[in-house]
Amino acid sequence: MPMKGGLKLVYTKRMRNTPKKRSKKNGKEEAGYAQLLEKQATENSSNLVVEALKEKIKELQGALQNVNKCTVCMGMYDKPLVSINCWHVHCQECWMAALGMKKLCPQCTTITTPSNLRRIFL
Fold first, then answer.
1. Rounded distance, CA 3 to CA 110, Å?
2. Which residue has the higher pLDDT, 101 or 22?
């Protein structure tokens, strides 16, 4: 009985040291599997980058919402003016365009004239 165990041990050591014969089909399958693993790793890293960029975009959009914008042109204030009648703030150009057509606030339609506008510094 000890001989069989000893032979088995020798046999397994010998099998570990001998190179395995691979068929062409098995080699191709292993190469395809390696390519698949590499593709998945690339996709996973790409997904991580995409997720990080999405989070950064959300962060920047939140920061942009905190910036003062004109509600008429949706741009940054060039020269902000406030009406002393309704206290709405718009760009000078937007106020003048709105008051040129009608003497009303473009946001709440309160009667406003150019003499009721005041320059503010934000």
1. 106
2. 101
